[in-house]
């Protein structure tokens, strides 16, 4: 299955999410609507709402509530993007200027708050306490992950375990919440709910680890962001952590210095080091391990086209180049 085949499994529901997104973006304040529509319409993959729809489809119970939950998830994700770009002082996302680059930091943060609020309004309309519990907890964990990442910026002593904790919070948690909340909405068995929670978590970890690899060997135009952004911001991602653990003194010193000062002055030398030490392949293998674990958690699902789509998505997450 390719991504277009996966999307076709929930094509009607995906279109319904798109319609609901634009309906829910309506605001009496024109700038709110303008910024929110800009970021939502800027070409994201919408993997997280797709996970909600495919989970519902896999259990044969896709309906308007699943569409609403998928929209909630997309709004939560978009809100975090608006806030992240301000924190990271990013000027490019998905091949376009970021909202903060176009309108400034204050409007971006406030529109992010608007999207959070709109998401929770729709969440209340779903009338499911288990879903509210999962998503309210997820937003806390995501915020903690972002703060934890911030405290690790320009810290070359970040361990692999600490880094895995960061990416679980900042990235994998919303994947996990997407599949877990969908199972809760459908009132699946505890075993099925746990399996979908674990599937989402492992898929999210795989997705972020491949992002780490692509930051060093991706195509900027295809990815819609600058290659080397993580190093420029002084983020100690897994390729760097692995290289510091296995390099010689000169390589360790180079990478530690590059993390501490940020910027891209040492990008070529750092890239040579992570390639020579197999750090990109190590990170890619970690992503494959996560994808394999994700697929193993689908055993409790009834056989269906949606189940195969979920299995294929785990494979595509680690094969992508954007």
UniProtKB/TrEMBL annotation:
<dbReference type="InterPro" id="IPR000092">
    <property type="entry name" value="Polyprenyl_synt"/>
</dbReference>
<keyword id="KW-0460">Magnesium</keyword>
<comment type="similarity">
    <text>Belongs to the FPP/GGPP synthase family.</text>
</comment>
<protein>
    <submittedName>
        <fullName>Octaprenyl diphosphate synthase</fullName>
        <ecNumber>2.5.1.90</ecNumber>
    </submittedName>
</protein>
<keyword id="KW-0808">Transferase</keyword>
<dbReference type="Pfam" id="PF00348">
    <property type="entry name" value="polyprenyl_synt"/>
</dbReference>
<dbReference type="GO" id="GO:0106350">
    <property type="term" value="F:all-trans-octaprenyl-diphosphate synthase activity"/>
</dbReference>
<dbReference type="InterPro" id="IPR033749">
    <property type="entry name" value="Polyprenyl_synt_CS"/>
</dbReference>
<dbReference type="InterPro" id="IPR008949">
    <property type="entry name" value="Isoprenoid_synthase_dom_sf"/>
</dbReference>
<keyword id="KW-0479">Metal-binding</keyword>
């Amino acid at each position: 299955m390719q991504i277009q085949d996966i999307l076709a499994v929930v094509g009607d529901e995906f279109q319904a999410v798109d319609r609901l997104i634009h309906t829910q973006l309506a605001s009496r304040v024109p700038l709110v609507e303008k910024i929110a529509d800009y970021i939502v319409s800027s070409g994201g993959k919408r993997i997280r709402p797709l996970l909600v729809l495919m989970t519902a489809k896999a259990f044969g119970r896709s309906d308007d509530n699943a569409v609403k939950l998928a929209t909630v998830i997309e709004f939560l994700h978009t809100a975090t993007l608006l806030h992240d770009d301000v924190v990271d002082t990013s000027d490019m996302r998905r091949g376009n200027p970021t909202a903060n680059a176009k309108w400034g930091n204050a409007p971006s943060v406030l529109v992010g708050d608007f999207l959070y609020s709109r998401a929770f309004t729709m969440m209340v309309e779903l009338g499911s306490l288990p879903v509210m519990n999962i998503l309210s907890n997820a937003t806390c964990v995501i915020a903690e992950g972002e703060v934890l990442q911030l405290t690790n910026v320009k810290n070359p002593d970040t361990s692999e375990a600490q880094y895995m904790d960061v990416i679980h919070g900042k990235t994998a948690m919303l994947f996990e919440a997407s599949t877990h909340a969908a199972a809760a909405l459908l009132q699946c068995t505890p075993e099925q709910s746990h399996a979908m929670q674990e599937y989402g978590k492992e898929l999210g970890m795989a997705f972020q680890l491949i992002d780490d690899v692509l930051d060093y060997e991706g195509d900027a135009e295809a990815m819609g962001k600058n290659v080397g952004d993580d190093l420029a911001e002084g983020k100690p991602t897994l390729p760097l952590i692995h290289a510091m653990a296995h390099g010689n003194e000169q390589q360790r010193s180079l990478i530690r210095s590059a993390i501490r000062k940020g910027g891209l002055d040492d990008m070529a030398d750092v890239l040579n080091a992570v390639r020579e030490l197999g750090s990109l392949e190590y990170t890619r293998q970690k992503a494959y391990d996560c994808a394999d674990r994700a697929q193993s958690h689908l055993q409790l699902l009834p056989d269906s086209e949606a189940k195969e789509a979920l299995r294929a998505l785990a494979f595509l997450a680690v094969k992508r180049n954007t």
